[in-house]
Structure formats: C-alpha cells, structure tokens
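Q: I'm building a small set of examples for a reading group on sequence design. Run inverse folding on the following structure and report the sequence directly after it, with nothing in between.
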C-alpha cells in the first residue's frame, strides 16, 4: 500500500475523503453522546490501523502503519520536554513520557485519527490516538491525568472544547504537572 493510501485509511475528514483513485471513501466522524460530550468514532467502524513501535516522549511516538515507520505527534496536547536536543528538560517531562509508555507499550494496537492537516513542519503525522484494547482516547487521558496541557494549532481543533474542559478540571484538581510544577513549560531546576 503506498503512503497516500495508508494515510487515507487513517483519515478523519469531517466528511468524506477520496482514495488515490479519486473515489469517495466514507470515514466515521466524531459524534456527540447524550451527555453532549464529544466522543471518538465508534471502534466497530474504525479498526486499529497502527502498532506502537516506541514512545519518544509524552506527546510523540513511532508507529508502524502498513509496514512503514511513522513519527506521530499527538494532536491537541503538549507535554513537558524530556528529550529535546535544543531545549532543556522540563518539570514533569519524564513522568509524562513514562505514563505514555505505560499506556502504550511496544506492540500496542492503536487507531490513529487525523484532523484537517495531516503533517506538521517536521513531517510528523498529526493524530488523535485511541488505544485499541479498551478504546481509551489517549490524548484526552493525558490531559485529564495532568500529564499534558492543551495546545491547539488550527485548523486541527476538532476536540478543542473537550480538551479545554478536561484541562480546566485537571488544573482545579492540581492533577499531575499542575500540582507538582504549577503548570507546563517549567524548567527543571
């Protein structure tokens, strides 16, 4: 499967996508449940499409997609730095990285869901991540548990209100980095 076809199998187009032959491909879109909270697409319709090879840090992983290795940046979140060569490590960076490693050990099946823009300036695939074993919305869980803050780069903002609400709750509860560091982007001393 070529790279375009592999990416299209990941696509969340908020409508319909086209495959490399120009044919419309229907992809489930996020839904709203009866509690009026946005949820990830139904896993019965969106099977796992990647496997975790390794975790880079709290918001980046390497996945195998159709036999190809892809660096994946989790959308809508930012965790403290723990491995950046050009920036100092930050408070709670190691904890965020370890937490993600615990959530997604090597070999974990995941579903990657794209928003409007598929890649960032570093050519990383930008995705929402769902753990296949139990449908855990990983991006949201990292915010709820206080390992990440919200970082939205438009137009990839589909879950912005859900993420901001979870962040407010984590701040109020002093969860994770909010209680230990006072917030994100705090250098280690």
């Amino acid at each position: 499967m070529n790279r375009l076809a592999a990416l299209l199998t990941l696509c969340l187009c908020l409508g319909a996508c086209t495959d490399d032959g120009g044919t419309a491909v229907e992809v489930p879109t996020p839904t709203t449940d009866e509690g009026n909270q946005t949820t990830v697409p139904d896993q019965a319709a969106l099977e796992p499409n990647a496997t975790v090879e390794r975790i880079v840090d709290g918001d980046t992983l390497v996945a195998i997609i159709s036999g190809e290795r892809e660096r994946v940046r989790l959308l809508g979140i930012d965790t403290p730095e723990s491995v950046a060569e050009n920036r100092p490590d930050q408070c709670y960076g190691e904890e965020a990285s370890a937490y993600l490693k615990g959530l997604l050990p090597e070999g974990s099946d995941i579903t990657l869901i794209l928003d409007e823009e598929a890649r960032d300036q570093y050519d990383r695939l930008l995705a929402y991540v769902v753990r296949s074993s139990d449908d855990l919305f990983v991006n949201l869980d990292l915010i709820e548990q206080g390992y990440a803050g919200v970082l939205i780069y438009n137009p990839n903002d589909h879950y912005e209100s859900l993420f901001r609400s979870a962040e407010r709750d984590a701040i109020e509860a002093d969860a994770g980095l909010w209680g230990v560091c006072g917030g994100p982007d705090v250098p280690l001393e």
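The mean pLDDT is 79.
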